Amino acid sequence: MRVTLLGTGDTTGTPTVGCDCDTCTAARERGVERTRFSVHVENERTDESLLIDFSPDFRYQFLRDEVPLPDAAVITHIHFDHLDGLGNVFRVLDDLSVYAADETDPETGASVAETVRADYHYLDRVTVVPTTPLETERICGLDVTLVPVEHPPLICYGLAVEDPETGAKLSITGDTSYAVPEESRAVLADPDLLLADAIVPASLCDHHPLGGRHEDATGVARTFGTKHMTREGALALAAELDATRTRLVHLAHFYPAAEAFEEPLAIDGEQYVL
Ligand SMILES: [Zn+2]
Ligand SMILES: [Zn+2]
Ligand SMILES: [Zn+2]
Asked: Metallo-beta-lactamase domain spans which residues (predicted)?
């Protein structure tokens, strides 16, 4: 399984357009970037590719990283930065299966699958496959399991991707607070590679109107506001899941420049063979 981090940024990415903060400036100087979230998973045994989330930067990411176009995709939730690249497949892909959760979101009155189908009704070569969380689907020769996470007010899912032949395992937290349910943690546990949402360091919680939550024993917030993990929260989750390797993703340009490119914060284009 070859995993390419196509997009490691939050909803505005780094550099953010129109921003000359120290972190965006440092990114430009280093020639690195964090575009909107997407992960490419290639099954080298079957020569198929699975895309996790449709970044608005889809076209640019595929040109830049020269990975194969996807044979199937998973959508974790309906926020702009994870879904709105789907329109890019028009006249590019002949057919595509898009897997998304089948549970009704009380906030929207529709499941992620239903919203994707409704928003992209004009893409008649896209087949939306409603998928039951916590049940494993074989996609592109890989075992994929969606797991509920906490990203209020919308429902959102993380996922585990396992190679049934080699046992290699990739876990992705999705956009989530630290309050990942126990049954979801059990599915995500023991990955060879964990990609964990770590939007900002805990020190920035003072700047969020809702502050932080899910503090550890020393008072460090593991959740920023209500929707995302802090760096410290993501690393705590990685330790609890006993991840062999962890890359922090969904990163904002609000990281201070001195911390923004430290390990294990990811940048676009990183590739891992599991
Ligand atoms: Zn900036
Ligand atoms: Zn989100
Ligand atoms: Zn997001």
From this structure: 35-228
How far does residue 57's CA lie from ligand 2's centre (Å)?
16
| Residue 104 belongs to domain with CATH number | 3.60.15.10
Q: Report CA(18)–ligand 1 centroid distance (Å).
A: 8
Task: Supply the pLDDT for residue 255.
Answer: 98
d(CA 201, ligand 2 centre) in Å: 18
DSSP code per residue over 79-144: SHHHHTTGGGGTTT-S-EEEEEE-SPBTTTTB-HHHHHHHHTTT-TTEEEEEE-TTSEEEETTEEE
Percentage of residues of the chain with pLDDT beyond 90: 100
- Find the domain containing 36 and state its range: 2-273
Number of domains in the chain: 1
Residues with CB under 5 A from ligand 2 (ion): 79, 175
Question: What pLDDT, in 10s, does the model give residues 41-63?
Answer: 999 999 999 999 999 999 999 99
* C-alpha 223 – ligand 1 centre gap (Å): 21
